[in-house]
Amino acid sequence: MGQHQNISNVKMATNHKLIIGNCMDMSEILDESIHLAVTSPPYFNAPFDYKGLFKNYGQYLGVLRKVAKELYRVLSNGRIFVLNIDDMLIDGEKFPITADATRIFLDAGFRYRDRIIWKKPEGYLRISRRSGVILQNPYPMYFYPDNLLESIIIFQKGKFVYKSISNDIREKSKVDTKEIQSKKWYMTLWDINNVMPNQVLEKDIAAFPEELPYRAIKLFSYSGEIVLDPFAGSGTTMKMARQLERNSIGIEIKKSLIPIIKEKVGFNGQKTLNKNEDTFELIERKKGWIK
User: Is the CB of residue 71 less than 8 Å from the CB of residue 107?
Assistant: First the structure.
């Protein structure tokens, strides 16, 4: 018998699976097999990205209800779902998406654990015309602020059993306290730069910044576990999962994003350091996807 090997410094081979289809159905994923879910759903009919995608607000909420039910099914007990979402202004009407989504996931069985506010740099605004109204009409009732904030809502399924994780895995997954302090992760206000428009791998995609899933994965999963993003987009969550030695599953409805995701996650023929044992699997459903 050889000596027990401490796995803290051992590189883990990871698997990354991309499912092309609609995430209202996650039938390829077993019950309670996911250790962390991180996602940002499409904005409701945003004029800059998703105009007319949903017939109405009720349909949008209906999609979230079905996704919530499936997420609750596939998440392991005690585990976390991190939802990046925000209210949306469409044709002068503001929709309370954050509140409605919170209610939907609570109704699905999740517990409300926390809410983080993501603050974008003040020099960047995708829609900057609202605040100009009161400058042109400096009178009461003309005030409409520009939005620099998004919500990161943290849900939990049941309660986590801390003793279920081995000491080796605990040590391998240890979070850098200096990073927590220097970047102020301990606060409910996170200053994170957003993805700038027209980035090569984010063109026409409302992608969230890598820092967001990076923090979620470090804070709420252990090395070698499985991270799910049901609205994979350009594959940002999958990329950070691989970088942090977690396995990942991404579900994406747009088949045209396959090469983008493979490029971002690092499975498009790129040479990688100490990562050549990682694997990539593509599942294309016969239906449920769009071009």
Answer: no
**CA 147 vs CA 45, 161, 187, 233, 259: distances in Å:** 17, 39, 20, 23, 33
Note whether 194 and 120 are within 8 A (CB): yes
Mean pLDDT of the chain: 88
> Tens digits of per-residue pLDDT, 152-195?
999 999 999 999 999 999 999 999 999 999 999 999 999 998 87
pTM of the model: 0.90
User: What would the two tokens of residue 243 be?
Assistant: 């970088």
Helices (H), the chain: 57-74, 97-107, 132-136, 167-172, 177-182, 211-220, 236-243, 258-265
CATH code, residues 7-284 = 3.40.50.150
Q: How far apart are CA 222 and CA 245, in angstroms?
A: 9
* Residues forming beta bridges with residue 190, ordered by sequence position: 118
Which residue matches tokens 């000596």? 3
For residues 255 and 291, the answer to whether their CB atoms sit within 8 Å is yes
Contacts by 57-62, CB closer than 8 A, 24 or more apart = 57/95, 60/97, 61/100, 61/101, 61/104
| Of 207, 219, 243, residue with least CA distance to 35 | 219
Token representation of residue 45: 């009919």
How does residue 148 score in pLDDT terms, banded at 50, 70 and 90?
confident
The strand pair at 88-90 and 93-95 is best described as: antiparallel
Domain map (residue ranges) of the chain: 7-284
Q: Which of 93-102, 152-161, 263-272 has the lowest mean pLDDT?
A: 263-272
